[in-house]
């Protein structure tokens, strides 16, 4: 991870407005990487895109039909599907960052709003929603992912221990979520300058281009 952070710090030109997009599925290490990058870059703007994800109550009512290896699946829409994101709202806010317009991030119960300061030249935008915008929205872009077992291990620590979720339900939902991820989200990685695998807690840069 430190190698990649050093590359990005060297790449960023502080005299120009720079937007860094970080994406990947849940448990891939996005927040860990974003926090480390913020620590290295200093005082920068930061936007977490979780508030741009459609409320889970609505997604539970939006059922998807899809096939994997010829087998039909019928399951609720997860955040791995592009339609689960308010992309027009995200595009508007990224455009305001680009044009140097200050604004408050979306205020939600689980994430307090923050002021996006137009005088700060660097803005980090991190979350799943980033994957579904075109590559030209970002000056620097990083996509992180893990294998299914590593993702489940990380999510089970968070969702079972911290949120009290039933492990059997989590496993069933994880399997379908992973299928939707492979179908709808993982192909988006090709739009990113850098692709990183964090499987088994080993950070491997699989692709890097400026």
UniProtKB/TrEMBL annotation:
Pfam families listed in its UniProt record: PRK
InterPro entries (alphabetical): P-loop_NTPase, PRK/URK
SUPFAM superfamilies attached to this UniProt entry: P-loop containing nucleoside triphosphate hydrolases (SSF52540)
Gene3D superfamilies: P-loop containing nucleotide triphosphate hydrolases
All copies of domain Phosphoribulokinase/uridine kinase, residue ranges: 19-199
Protein name: Phosphoribulokinase
Organism this protein belongs to: Exiguobacterium mexicanum
């Amino acid at each position: 991870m430190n190698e990649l952070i050093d590359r990005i710090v060297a790449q960023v030109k502080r005299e120009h407005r720079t937007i860094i997009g970080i994406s990947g599925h849940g448990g891939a290490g996005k927040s860990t990487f974003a926090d480390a990058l913020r620590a290295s870059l200093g005082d920068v703007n930061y936007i977490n895109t979780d508030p741009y994800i459609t409320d889970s109550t609505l997604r539970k009512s939006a059922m998807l039909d899809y096939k994997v290896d010829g087998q039909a699946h019928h399951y609720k829409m997860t955040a791995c599907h592009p339609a689960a994101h308010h992309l027009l709202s995200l595009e508007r806010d990224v455009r305001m960052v680009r044009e140097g317009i200050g604004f408050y991030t979306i205020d939600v119960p689980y994430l307090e709003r923050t002021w996006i300061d137009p005088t700060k030249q660097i803005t980090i935008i991190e979350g799943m929603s980033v994957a579904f915008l075109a590559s030209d929205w970002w000056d620097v872009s990083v996509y992180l992912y893990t294998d299914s077992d590593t993702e489940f291990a990380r999510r089970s620590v968070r969702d079972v221990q911290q949120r009290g979720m039933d492990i059997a339900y989590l496993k069933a939902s994880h399997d379908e979520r992973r299928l939707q991820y492979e179908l709808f989200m993982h192909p988006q990685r090709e739009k990113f300058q850098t692709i990183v695998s964090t499987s088994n807690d080993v950070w491997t840069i699989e692709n890097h281009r400026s």
